[in-house]
């Protein structure tokens, strides 16, 4: 691999997903303003933040492929952020009960050497079961999903909250669309199935 691979994220969930590709990579937290602009759609917000995250690490990572990703959840036209605490998580799940929630996951790969950037937004829809207050409170108590948009962890007990999932890549829901990422890396000549030269990147 001719480039160092860098994940622009502090998320342990995204790191775990990227490790599935068995490519050596480093990671760092990008420092950007993640507030939505007035009138900005969930789709546009996810795309912009993914691109800005990748660009933010470019000055300190020359000759690198930098992966940025961001996820925005939307229910009934309202953007759902990370709850940050118990009461807000309960409120989010109560609002989502019996509803359809769409997740927009922005993905961007930036070549800091050539300044080429490839980006897209992948969508995934979940249909929530009708949940009662006791079920919601018990779930929040068990998993404490305070750092997750939508207040659930699909890779854990969160799967019990849904009656149906719709999308082409379940990894999109966790926060890093691996199928699209493999396509993007291929555009830069990087493949998880190709031999990787020693010293071509930092281990995660």
Domain unit count: 1
Distance between the termini: 16 Å
Total helices: the number is 6
Q: What CATH architecture would you give?
A: Alpha-Beta Complex
CATH topology: Maf protein
Provide the succession of SSEs: EHEHEEHEEHEHH
Question: Sheet with the most strands?
Answer: 7 strands, mixed
Low-confidence runs: 200-204
CATH class assignment:
Alpha Beta
Considering DSSP H and I runs of 4 or more, what fraction of the residues is helical?
Answer: 25-40%
User: What's the number of extended β-strand segments?
Assistant: 7
Task: Write down the overall mean pLDDT.
Answer: 92
Blueprint of the fold:
Elements: E1 4-8, H1 12-19, E2 26-28, H2 42-56, E3 64-75, E4 78-80, H3 86-96, E5 100-111, E6 117-128, H4 133-143, E7 162-166, H5 170-174, H6 178-187
Parallel strand pairs: 1-2, 1-3
Antiparallel strand pairs: 3-4, 3-5, 5-6, 6-7
Helix pairs in contact: 3-4
Give an overview of the whole structure.
The chain is α/β, with parallel strands linked by helices and 204 residues long. The protein has a single domain, classed as Maf protein (Alpha-Beta Complex), CATH 3.90.950.10. It contains 6 helices and 7 strands. Helix 3 (86-96) crosses helix 4. The longest helix is centred in the N-terminal third of the chain and has 15 residues, at 42-56. 40% of the residues are buried.
Give a quick set of tags describing it.
204 residues, alpha/beta, Maf protein, 6 helices, 7 strands, disordered C terminus
Describe this structure in a few short sentences.
With 204 residues, the chain is α/β, with parallel strands linked by helices.
């Amino acid at each position: 691999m001719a480039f160092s691979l860098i994940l622009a994220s502090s998320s342990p969930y995204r790191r775990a997903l990227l490790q599935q590709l068995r490519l050596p990579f480093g990671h760092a937290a990008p420092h950007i303003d993640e507030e939505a602009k007035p009138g900005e759609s969930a789709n546009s917000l996810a795309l912009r933040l993914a691109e800005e995250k990748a660009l933010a690490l470019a000055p300190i990572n020359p000759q690198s492929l930098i992966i940025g990703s961001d996820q925005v959840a939307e229910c009934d036209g309202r953007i759902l952020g990370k709850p940050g605490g118990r009461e807000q998580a309960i409120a989010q799940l109560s609002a989502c009960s019996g509803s359809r929630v769409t997740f927009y996951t922005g993905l961007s790969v930036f070549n800091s050497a050539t300044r080429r950037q490839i980006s897209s937004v992948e969508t995934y829809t979940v249909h929530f079961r009708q949940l009662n207050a006791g079920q919601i409170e018990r779930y929040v108590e068990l998993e404490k999903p305070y750092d997750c948009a939508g207040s659930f962890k699909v890779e854990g007990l969160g799967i019990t909250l849904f009656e149906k999932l719709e999308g082409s890549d379940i990894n999109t829901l966790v926060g890093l669309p691996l199928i699209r990422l493999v396509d993007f890396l291929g555009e830069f000549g990087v493949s998880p199935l190709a031999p990787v030269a020693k010293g071509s990147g930092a281990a995660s």
